[in-house]
Each structure stands twice: as structure tokens, then as C-alpha cells.
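Changelog entry

Holo records now carry the ligand SMILES as an explicit input line rather than a separate metadata file. Below, a converted record for flavin-adenine dinucleotide, shown in the new format.
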Amino acid sequence: MKNKLFIIGGGMGGISAGLYLSKSDFEIHIFETNSTLGGRANILDLDGFIFDTGPSLLNYPWVFDDLYKFIGTSLNEELELQKIDPAIKYYWPDGETFQLSSDLTKLSQECIRLDSRDGIGLLNFLSDARKKYSVSFDNLVTQNTQSPLKWFFSAGLRNILKLGLFRSMESQLNLHFKNKKIIEAFGSYAMYLGGAPHDLPGIFSILPFGELEYGLWLPKGGMYKLVESLEKSLVKQGVIIHKNTKVKNIIKEKNHVKGITLINDEKLYCDQIISNVDLPTTMNKLLEDKKFKSPKMTPGVITYYLGINKKLDNLEHHSVFFPKNTKFAYEEIMKNNNIPEDIPFYISVASNNDLSLAPKNKSGVFILIPVPLKNKDYAWDKMSEQLLSKVLLRLRKHKIIINNEDIINKETISPKKWEDLFGLHMGSAFGASHNLFQVGPFRNSNKSKKYKNLFFVGASTTPGTGLPMCVLSGKMVAERVLQNNE
Ligand SMILES: Cc1cc2nc3c(=O)[nH]c(=O)nc-3n(C[C@H](O)[C@H](O)[C@H](O)COP(=O)(O)OP(=O)(O)OC[C@H]3O[C@@H](n4cnc5c(N)ncnc54)[C@H](O)[C@@H]3O)c2cc1C
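Structure line, unchanged by the conversion:
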């Protein structure tokens, strides 16, 4: 009889682990509480307005291609990808904008438009970030080790010093660019990692580089097409999927786990378990580990899905709106647990590039506002209306007009709802944050310290957050499970 492996949760990490283990000798079962796989990467259909609930952009396509190649196909065979370029447009309250493009000539012209010295700055930044990127991905990101020494030495001390681990992302960007707005734009990736650019390690300057180098993409039909295609692959590979099946707890005995109890109290037994449920939730709820100390988490988000009764041609696919004082806003959200008066936000209008995502001559608008973690007591219904009014007012300043009457469909997901839907600890949108002491060997391990046959996968474990990282997380945990089984 085959050994049984249970994966709790069908988010991207769980899916990837299932696929990376599908050629092994296990009988693999995925248990997902919702009626759809994907977790945060889910789908919402509001009368023909099709929205991706979480991820709105696909980056690092090679990571997905590697996964597909492992099971004998490829990203291009499975999905029709559309390149989104210009990639992102950034807006400031004084009317200034900055447009990111993976076309080097266009990007360089845009940098020079803001500061004549920043054309050279861009070239220096790219060359520096390219080195950091290759050291990171060749040696560090997917290393399954809890030993800082092993981690450091595998990359070589000289390389480590070049990574900018001990300098902030902002000071790393300051080394290359003069214009504060360009620095703010490139630094804005920090928010998704759970810090401000002046707090997070400089190594994360590789994030904007990765997007410029490999581009931003949208699968035709939206991001959820990726999940659907991976689900088909799971079935083809023989993985058994149980949807609408909530796991109540993990059955433990001394230093082993034995199986799971479902919400209806049915007990199912297995040989190994991988939990894709957000790691702190796994520890607190599924294992009831009272000693577990939660890592610092990334902020929450409030997200809006608006069906708009007209085309919005003057909004790009991806736009980021900065407040007057971005540094202050980051501090308010991430350190002081306040929603600032002047809010930063992100908007995606995927239906501008893929007409199948909205009814004819209409637009689907996704809005994301970062909010503090300690937000449980907010009256979210009232608060979400107030914040949406602020967003619409701000858009008006940039001559992007959405009147209340234009909104014909609307759904809102508050941090509380994000938590309830997918088990996200404290409603944190992106999982454990990525400060220096929560990356690499310092991040929560993907192997339980206490239970020999229990593993973790997903955004709050190693290597980190975002769909590509969760796919890599699946690959890393598969390696761990196979080592354990030798
Ligand atoms: C608003 C938003 C925007 C984002 N934008 C992007 C983007 O543009 N690009 C990008 O790459 N990334 C983006 N991300 C991040 C990305 O979505 C996540 O990093 C990734 O999807 C997390 O995957 P995961 O493996 O941690 O699984 P999760 O998504 O956390 O899924 C865990 C699964 O476990 C299930 N589960 C929970 N409890 C139980 C239980 N008791 N029993 C059974 N099942 C259970 C849940 O229902 C869920 O399906 C975004 C995230 C959010 C929230």
C-alpha cells in the first residue's frame, strides 16, 4: 500500500507541493475548506465582471515554467500570456507621474525626464541588482537550511557583502538614483513584504529588477486561469482533491502527527502532513501550540471589486497612487496601527487589456488599500465606504472620473473577511514579513521542529510571499518530504 500524504489547504504553495511530489510514491490528498482552489489567488464573478481576488499580476514566469516542465509541459503550452507594458504607472498628489516599463529605452527616457542623472543611475541600478538577483536565486532563496552559517557560506562571503543585507532598501536605491520619486516608486515593493523601504534589507531592490527583467504578465482570462490549469494538472498527476473540506485539527502523538480531524469530527490517518494553512494559523489553531510566537506579519488590505458602467481608458493596467508623505503613511500603517488621512493605494484595471473580463464597454476595477494589522474592531462597512470615497476623490484630481452612479457592481473584502475566508493570521494579506530576521534561515522553517513528519508550505514560511515564491516553497517542501522519507 502507498504511503499517504495529506496537504491541508489548496493555495499556491499546496498546489505546487502536490505537483512537485506527484511523481513520488505517495498517495496525495489535498483538503481545501473552500469550494475552489487557489486560496488568496481566487476568482470573483460579479455578473460578468471577472476579478482575481488577490494576485493581479504574474511575475517571474520562469518559476511557473519550471513547475510545468517538471510535469512534462510548459507555461506557454498551458496558458496564453499577455505582456503588460507599460507595467505600472505611479502617481503623486502634485500631478507628477512615473511609468515603469521593461523596455529599457522607454524606462531610461522616463528616468531622465525626472532627473537627467538618473539615466546612468538606472543602468548602475540594473547592473547591481542583476548581480544580487543571481546570487540570491542561484545560492540563497531555495536553500533548505536553518543554519545561517551554511546559508551565508554557500553564497560566499564576498557575494553576501554585496547583497546589501545590512543596508536598507531605501539607502540601496539612494546609491543609484537622485530623484526621490523614482526611489519612492522602486521602494514601494516593500509594502508587500511587510516593511517600509527605510526598514527592509537592501537585497529587496532585486524585486523591481526581477519585474523589469522578466516582465509583468496576465494570463488570458485572468490570473485564475493559472490556478485552473494547475488544478487540471493535479488531477492528471493523480492527486486527490477534497474541496469544501475544512480541517479542524492535526492529530498528534508524541513527536509525530498521525492524521487530521475534519470539521464533522471524522478522523483520517496518513503518514506525512504538509500544511498550506498560513503558518501561524496552523500553529495556533490546527496544532494548538500555546508556545508558538507569531512572526511579525505584513499589513492587512481592504480590497474592492467594482463593476463600472463605462470604459476607463485613462487608467493603466496597474497604477499606484502615493500620498503626499509616503514615509509617514508607511509608519502609520505598519508601526502605529493607524489608517493615515492621506492613503496610498493600488488600482488594477485588467479589463483594459483583456476584454473578456468585463461586459462590453464596461470596466472591472480592483482597488487595494493597505491597512494596519490591529484592525479587528473597525466598523469595516462604514470604514470601507469612507476609504472608497477618498480613493474616488483622489482619482478625480488626476482626471480619472468614477461617479458613485457609475458603480453597478461592488464587492469588498476587509481584513477580517480575508482572515475568515482563507485563515490568514490577523488578516495579514501577504503573510510573515521579510525583515532581516525573517528571511532565509531565520524565517519560520518549512519543517516542524517538534513533529518529525509535519511540514509547512506557503507565504509565511520559506522563501516568502507572492505566487512565484509560494511555487518555490512547494518545491522546497517537496525536497524536505522526500529527504524525510529516504
Ligand atoms: C490582495 C492581494 C494581492 C496580491 N497580489 C499579488 C500579485 O499581484 N502577485 C503575486 O505574485 N502575489 C500577490 N499576492 C500574494 C499571493 O497571493 C500569496 O503570496 C499567495 O497566493 C499565498 O499562497 P499560499 O501558498 O500561502 O496559500 P494561501 O493563499 O494562504 O491558501 C491557503 C489555503 O488554505 C485553505 N485553508 C485555510 N484553513 C484551512 C483549513 N482549516 N482546512 C482546509 N483548508 C484550509 C484556504 O482556504 C486557502 O485556500 C497578493 C495577495 C493578496 C492578498
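Spot-checked after migration. The first strand starts at residue 4 and ends at 8. Residues 8-13, 31-34, 39-41, 54-57, 246-247, 276-278, 301, 303, 368, 422-423, 429-430, 458-459, 465-467, 470 surround flavin-adenine dinucleotide (CB under 6 Å).
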